[in-house]
Design goal:
Catalyzes the conversion of lactate to pyruvate. InterPro entries: L-lactate/malate_DH, L-lactate_DH, L-lactate_DH_AS, Lactate/malate_DH_C, Lactate/malate_DH_N, Lactate_DH/Glyco_Ohase_4_C, NAD(P)-bd_dom_sf. Substrate binds at residues 101, 107, 139-142, 167-170, 248. It is found in: Cytoplasm. This is L-lactate dehydrogenase. There is one protein chain. This protein is of the alpha/beta class and 331 residues long. The chain has eight helices and 16 strands. The chain has helices at residues 32-43, 57-68, 111-128, 141-152, 165-179, 222-245, 250-264, 309-327, and strands spanning 24-28, 49-53, 78-81, 92-95, 133-136, 159-161, 186-187, 190-191, 199-200, 206-207, 210-211, 269-271, 274-277, 286-289, 292-295, 298-302. It has a six-stranded parallel sheet, with helices on both faces. Strand 8 and strand 9 (199-200) form a beta hairpin. It is globular, with a radius of gyration of 21 Å. The termini are far apart. 42% of the residues are buried. The mean pLDDT is 95. The structure holds 1,4-dihydronicotinamide adenine dinucleotide and pyruvic acid. 1,4-dihydronicotinamide adenine dinucleotide is lined by residues 28-34, 53-56, 59, 96-101, 110, 117, 121, 137-139, 141, 162, 166, 194, 247-248, 252.
Length: 331
């Protein structure tokens, strides 16, 4: 079509091995979170091709129409609605489908509904997108990551949960506000469950390598109480936001983008994603977040982070909460 406008170049390189293979991702779930991930990845030039899938076809079409009308403003990429079958050559599948918390509900309250959904979904994903890394966002994300690993039969390195990447960002943001520091220069981690039993690693909080505390916040000084209040805000952030606007989406969209970039750009980036833990800190057969090295193979290494006795105990408790929940599942 319109050949009159173009003249083929005399020496087009036909050797496809010199051309980088496009980075392709599938997002399952075109809800608030799925679309925030799509938008964030689009404006950060993260994928060359993005396929968005949802059982609600009408909503899906509307969301994708809205998104593609922005393509002239960003780096070129393909964005379209589709089905899982369109993901046969996908590098990554991001799962955001499923029930979300209503005001007052915990993430663990979603477990039955979302595990039932995943029982069908994961086998389809593995069948259709055989070579993809799975990135789970649906809550309760640690349980859903474990369930996805078990149901998929994939190596655990290829099944990753967004984990406490979001909580870690909230922690850094709030601490950075308090200390008047750019959050990128403040290093701090939330580990364990993405949920009520999560653990702040006070002993490792530092500004460009300078530790801010000796260890645990043991004495009840005013300063320490203020810092405990910061952690309470981190832990309760989702409840507070859901109470006000019904869902959280922007920050998780940005967090997912960082994880996807770490994977597809082979960055070896340290992120508090959720992955299978077997042995570290005395934890067995649970997915939860510890600082992990993320690259094109997924989670390849976990940092042997030293913790105080109190932090170890809190982490073990968090793992027990998750293990008990897994123990009640009929997988
Ligand atoms: N890991 C994290 O840090 C966070 C996780 N979440 C979780 O993400 C999930 C999604 O939240 P929202 O997007 O706000 O919910 P939402 O209700 O806006 O969207 C969910 C979407 O999933 C779709 N869906 C349901 N079953 C499907 C299937 N079998 N295949 C394809 N699509 C399907 C629905 O049609 C809907 O469009 C929830 O479980 C929520 O708790 C939310 C924020 C942060
Ligand atoms: C909903 C949720 O998991 C969060 O915003 O942390």
């Amino acid at each position: 079509m319109f050949e009159q406008f173009f003249t083929p170049s005399p020496e087009v390189n036909q050797d496809s091995t010199t051309i980088r293979r496009p980075r392709k991702g599938v997002i399952i779930g075109a809800g608030q979170v799925g679309m925030a991930c799509a938008y964030s990845m689009l404006i950060q030039n993260t994928l060359d091709e993005m396929v968005i899938v949802d059982v609600n076809r009408e909503k899906l079409e509307g969301e994708v129409m809205d998104l593609v009308h922005g393509l002239p403003f960003v780096q070129p990429s393909i964005v379209r609605s589709g089905t899982l079958a369109d993901g046969h050559d996908a590098d990554i599948v991001i799962i955001t489908a499923g029930a979300k918390q209503r005001p007052g509900e915990t993430r663990l309250d979603l477990v039955q509904r979302n595990v039932e959904l995943f029982k069908n979904l994961i086998s389809e994903v593995v069948k259709c997108c055989a070579n993809a890394i799975l990135l789970i966002v649906t809550n309760p994300v640690d349980i859903m990551t474990y369930v996805s690993w078990r149901l998929s039969g994939l190596p655990s390195s290829s099944v990753i949960g967004s984990g406490t990447v979001l909580d870690t960002a909230r922690f850094r943001y709030l601490l950075a506000e308090k200390f008047q520091i750019d959050p990128r220069s403040l290093h701090a981690y939330i580990i364990g469950e993405h949920g009520d039993s999560e653990v702040p690693v006070w002993s490792k909080v530092n500004v460009s390598g300078m530790p801010l505390f000796d260890g645990d916040l043991d004495n009840a000084s005013d300063d320490n109480q203020q810092l405990e209040e910061v952690f309470a805000q981190v832990k309760n952030a989702a409840y507070e936001i859901i109470q006000r606007k019904g869902a959280t989406s922007y920050a998780i969209g940005l967090g997912v983008t960082q994880i996807v970039q770490a994977i597809l750009r082979n960055q070896n980036r340290v992120l508090t994603v959720s992955s299978l833990i077997n042995g570290l800190h005395g934890i067995e057969d649970v997915c939860l977040s510890l600082p992990a090295v993320v690259n094109r193979q997924g989670v390849t290494r976990l940092l042997n982070m030293s913790l105080t006795t109190k932090e170890e105990q809190q982490l073990l408790h968090s793992s027990q909460v998750l293990r008990e929940t897994i123990g009640k599942l009929n997988l």
